[in-house]
Design brief:
This protein is mainly alpha-helical and about 70 residues long. The protein has 3 helices and no strands. Helix 2 packs antiparallel against helix 3. The protein is elongated, with a radius of gyration of 15 Å.
Length: about 70
């Protein structure tokens, strides 16, 4: 998923996407370690996606805290 698509999501959708991506990352790591899956690139893609979602959530939190303080 591209970052532009993630930016168009609501806060709730981003939180759901984060939970889903973290679960999927755990599953893919397990499958790679047990030899059931050979796609190591999937781990990198999921880690990148988790980082992007966390960054967007952190940005939203920062923006809302700035507007509340004023």
């Amino acid at each position: 998923m591209k970052i532009q698509e993630l930016r168009q999501m609501t806060l709730k959708q981003l939180q759901e996407k984060l939970v889903k991506s973290e679960r999927e990352l755990t599953s893919v790591r397990f499958h790679v370690k047990t030899g059931q899956n050979q796609d190591n690139a999937a781990i990198r893609k999921l880690r990148t996606q988790v980082a992007q979602v966390k960054t967007l959530l952190n940005d939203e939190e920062f923006v809302t805290s700035k507007t509340v303080k004023k």
